[in-house]
């Protein structure tokens, strides 16, 4: 059943384009995600079909010698076939109850990631808008969940958002002019680091829901600890493809996880 947002929460989301929910996941749930990530990147378990394991660009280019698989990995992406992460995070009822408050009762998962920010690499993610990656609309029926697995601080590269930027347009994106940029970490053109950005420092288990047009990114991890987060994007099954657009395909299926399909929907 949909979580009922308070008037204050609804107003905050509408005005700012994001909402932080403290303590949505507990330590045992976060430990499960952490362990599964470790097992996947070390090869202790086989990566699920269609899952992408992405090495940090500095490691891949030999600029940094990583001491472990964990130190070498920027993220695992598209874990919709993983028998642990997907049910334990993306389709868990308490998360879907919140998602329903943003996108309505008919919910599809459209993308998933466990993001690792290891020490000793650049690892920055420039300010960008996730709608770039979704060939369907309306944007208001798409939402991201992003849950801190570790404490996320300014020092270790917490999420950064530009409040209210979701009211703007989808901007053109490009590779930032940095020496080391992870694969497909595009930045919104002309935005830079934006003077109105806000750092979302979060405790483990805190979850932020955000709009796909919200400008967001993250900084470098300047500590010697890891900064992990788990994230999933959701859309209403009623969303419709843009003219001429096609589903991304088998590699990233849109999976109905609550409610009903819509004729002509994604
Ligand atoms: O977790 C992060 O560092 C940022 C992730 C992000 O914004 C993304 O992958 O779109």
Q: What do you see in this structure?
A:
By secondary structure, the chain is α+β, with helices and mostly antiparallel strands. It has one domain: q2cbj1_9rhob like domain (Jelly Rolls), CATH 2.60.120.620. The protein has 6 helices and 16 strands. It has helices at residues 7-16, 27-42, 57-60, 69-72, 85-90, 93-103; strands spanning 18-21, 52-55, 73-77, 107-117, 125-128, 136-137, 142-148, 159-161, 173-174, 187-188, 198-200, 207-210, 216-218, 227-236, 240-241, 255-258. Strands 1, 2, 3, 4, 7, 12, 14 and 16 form an 8-stranded antiparallel sheet that branches. A 4-stranded antiparallel sheet has the order 5-13-8-11, with no helix packed on it. A two-stranded antiparallel ribbon has the order 6-15. The two termini are 22 Å apart. The model has no long low-confidence stretch (mean pLDDT 96). Residues 113, 115, 117, 125, 130, 159, 216-218, 229 line the site of 2-oxoglutaric acid.
Q: Tally the beta strands.
A: 16
Give me the Rg, rounded: 17 Å
State the order of secondary-structure elements, H for helix, E for strand. HEHEHHEHHEEEEEEEEEEEEE
Named once each, the bound ligands are: 2-oxoglutaric acid
Structural class: alpha+beta
Terminal CA distance reads: 22 Å
The number of distinct structural domains comes to: 1
Helix content: 10-25%
For the record, the CATH architecture stands as: Sandwich
Sheet of most strands: 8 strands, antiparallel
Tell me the number of helical segments per DSSP (H or I, 4 or more residues long).
6
CATH topology: Jelly Rolls
Beta-strand level of the residues, as a percent range? Answer: 25-35%
Q: Low-confidence stretches at least 5 residues in length (pLDDT < 50)?
A: none
Q: Please identify the top-level CATH class.
A: Mainly Beta
CATH fourth-tier homologous superfamily = q2cbj1_9rhob like domain
Q: What is the residue-mean pLDDT, rounded to a whole number?
A: 96
Shape: globular
């Amino acid at each position: 059943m949909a979580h009922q947002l308070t008037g204050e929460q609804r107003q905050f989301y509408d005005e700012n384009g994001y909402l932080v929910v403290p303590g949505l996941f507990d330590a045992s749930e976060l430990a499960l995600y952490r362990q599964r990530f470790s097992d996947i990147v070390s090869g202790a378990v086989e990566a699920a079909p269609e899952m992408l394991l992405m090495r940090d660009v500095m490691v891949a280019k030999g600029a940094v010698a990583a001491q472990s698989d964990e130190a070498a990995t920027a993220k695992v992406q598209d874990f919709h076939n993983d028998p642990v992460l997907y049910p334990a995070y993306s389709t868990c009822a308490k998360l879907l109850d919140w998602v329903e408050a943003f996108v309505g009762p008919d919910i599809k998962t459209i993308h998933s990631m466990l993001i690792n920010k290891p020490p000793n690499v650049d690892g920055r993610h420039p300010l960008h808008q996730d709608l770039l990656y979704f060939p369907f609309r309306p944007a208001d029926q798409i939402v991201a969940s992003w849950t801190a697995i570790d404490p996320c601080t300014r020092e270790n590269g917490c999420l950064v958002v530009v409040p209210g930027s979701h009211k703007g347009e989808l901007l053109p994106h490009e590779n930032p002019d940095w020496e080391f940029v992870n694969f497909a970490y595009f930045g919104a053109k002309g935005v830079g680091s934006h003077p109105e950005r806000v750092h979302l420092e979060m405790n483990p288990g805190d979850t932020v829901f955000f709009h796909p047009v919200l400008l967001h990114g993250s900084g470098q991890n300047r500590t010697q600890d890891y900064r992990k987060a788990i994230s999933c994007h959701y859309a209403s099954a009623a969303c419709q493809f843009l003219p001429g657009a096609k589903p991304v395909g088998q590699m990233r299926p849109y999976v109905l996880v609550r409610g009903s399909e819509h004729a002509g929907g994604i």
